[in-house]
Amino acid sequence: MRPSGRDLSEMRPISIETGFTKHAEGSCLIKVGDTHVLCTATLEDRVPPFIKGSGLGWVTAEYGMLPRATNTRMRREAASGKQGGRTVEIQRLIGRSLRAGVDRVALGERQITVDCDVLQADGGTRCASITGGWVALRLAVNKLMKAGEVITDPLLEPVAAVSCGIYAGQPVLDLDYPEDSEAGVDGNFIMTGSRQLIEVQMSAEGSTYSRAQMDQLMDLAEKGVSELVEAQKAATA
Questions:
Q1: Which of 116, 129, 145, 155 has the smallest C-beta neighbourhood within 10 Å, fewest atoms?
Q2: Which residues lie across from 41 on neighbouring strands?
């Protein structure tokens, strides 16, 4: 039995509220169970120096957690003067995941920055950030298209992410914190709407896993991503 009482292949409740902030070109508050992430997308008519003049667009991301997003207060990274290694790793993951679903030629030479701020954490914050980040990106691109600034839709297909793992010897979908902290195997699966893989992060936490178990987790991940993509489409329809 899972701590939440969910079935092994059951996602936590998903909700996506769009237009959550006033000023951003695209924004949403995504809730996956008790994990809540505010995602905003900002359009800029500039690109990083390394692609300037190439005609290619760029999508990047930043990630952070509020001090009381967790059970105990975390010190703001700004107070220490630098980002932690986990933060840097996650925001790079979000950026490259979202770029996988973008036609950078069609986007044109402009940058979209997706900010993901974790308001409340209960496991799966990076996955929720990617899933909500795509919604914010979709909304920002819609504004570009409505204004006639891009002719062809630069978003190829949705991008979403979900965690899966081995908990109490069983493969489970969408780990919350009690499961994540005790899982023998933990993984994050990032896919497109057509179930093409973008990235898989798998690690054994004091245990090992077989090829058959990996296949079971892949099957669960495909189910979870399909549900997330439906939620994304409903939110941006």
A1: 145
A2: 26, 114
Task: Give the single-character DSSP code of 76.
Answer: P
What's the Cα-to-Cα distance from 225 to each of 5, 44, 134, 192, 197, rounded to whole Å? 21, 30, 13, 8, 11
- Asked whether the beta carbons of 230 and 188 are under 8 A apart, the reply is no
Question: What is the value of pTM for the model shown?
Answer: 0.97
Per-residue pLDDT of the chain (237 residues; tens, 9 = 90+): 899 999 999 999 999 999 999 999 999 999 999 999 999 999 999 999 999 999 999 999 999 999 999 999 999 998 888 899 999 999 999 999 999 999 999 999 999 999 999 999 999 999 999 999 999 999 999 999 999 999 999 999 999 999 999 999 999 999 999 999 999 999 999 999 999 999 999 999 878 999 999 999 999 999 999 999 999 999 999
Separation between Cα atoms, residue 76 and residue 49, nearest integer Å = 29
| Alpha-carbon dihedral angle through residues 171, 174, 178, 179, given to the nearest 10 degrees | 10
H or E element at residue 210: none
Q: How far apart are alpha carbons 216 and 146 in whole angstroms?
A: 42
Helix ranges (H only) for the chain are 77-80, 85-99, 104-107, 125-146, 177-180, 211-236
* CA–CA gap between residue 113 and residue 135 (Å, rounded): 13
Q: What is the pLDDT of residue 68?
A: 95
